[in-house]
């Protein structure tokens, strides 16, 4: 299918569907000072054409228009040349049902708003640490919340998904109505349809301690020593405690943040942290605090995720040599480059009540490299190749390249990958939807 962008919207222009119809190129030209023209290769991806849709039928018409014009469609920036970025912000309804512990949420709702909606009821949606993201979009890639070891992935709690598929169907997908599609959407949604909303289960949260220990910069070998002690503390850690380590390259060494979230009795969380405090030097800053049940923020309030180019990897174990290699690789990276090592397992690793297709959920650790350049993120991730599974988890910020596609196939496994490929071939045979995974190149 040809992917030209003749006579599409001006880069950066936001156009609203009118009566379920895409505006014509002539109408676009007359709506403002911009002249309709093709999206040029090499242009800032954020400047691709953005189309605001306000209903499921608008999405149907946008997909049909894209197919007839030889364009691709995405709902997640960045959108490259020849791609329409659908703006789903109009799908902004949120309805909490405290009695049955569910919330209906539209695709335009971000985590921070969803958290604020469920908080007064003492309920927790399993939000990721980046509260600015779409709750629906991130849930469908298998969002790893700070409480995932305790309650599982957000996608495990999905009850119904409202979706528009490229064949023009508007569906409410449930495990009873369409078990294969329901499974595939939770982990492979980007290539199968445009999700406009969902019904999501939320969990009661009675007690929570969360926050970080921040250590001042020090040499790489000293940071590696701290990580070794943290790694030993992880052995047998109950799933009520979640934790990750972030190592950041600084001009004067490496900085280390250890982050914690304990869902359960305060005394239990305090005892676990005291065990670690006995083997580590005093941190430069401590932000661990109680988060009360019906308070204003019933979730751990982690630091905002670092922004940059990323590369992910999964590990079945955190080998001592991998810790040393990681510290040395961060030391050799440009200042500001960081590596996040997250303990997984617990409820994350167990089979979901209704199986889905989230890749790599059984891995023991995930590693995420963040850098100012993709090459630097790749180099940092490559340092752990001897211990990596070859797979990756799925994240909205992942680079959309052949390397990600190969790693996702490993992370999914052949059974899930075959299901995704078969459904994509049936629902989107012309490849209208852009996705971080592309079955053709990967399987060749």
Automatic annotation (TrEMBL):
Alphabetically ordered keywords of this record: FAD, Flavoprotein, Oxidoreductase
Occurrences of domain FAD-binding PCMH-type (ranges): 43-205
Cofactors named for this entry: FAD
Region (Disordered): 15-44
A molecular function GO annotation: FAD binding
Keyword hit for Oxidoreductase: yes
Keyword Flavoprotein attached: yes
Pfam families: FAD_binding_4
Top-rank taxon: Bacteria
Skewed-composition ranges (Basic and acidic residues): 34-43
PANTHER family linked: BINDING OXIDOREDUCTASE, PUTATIVE (AFU_ORTHOLOGUE AFUA_1G17690)-RELATED, FAD-BINDING PCMH-TYPE DOMAIN-CONTAINING PROTEIN
Protein family per UniProt: Belongs to the oxygen-dependent FAD-linked oxidoreductase family.
Name of the protein in its database record: FAD-binding oxidoreductase
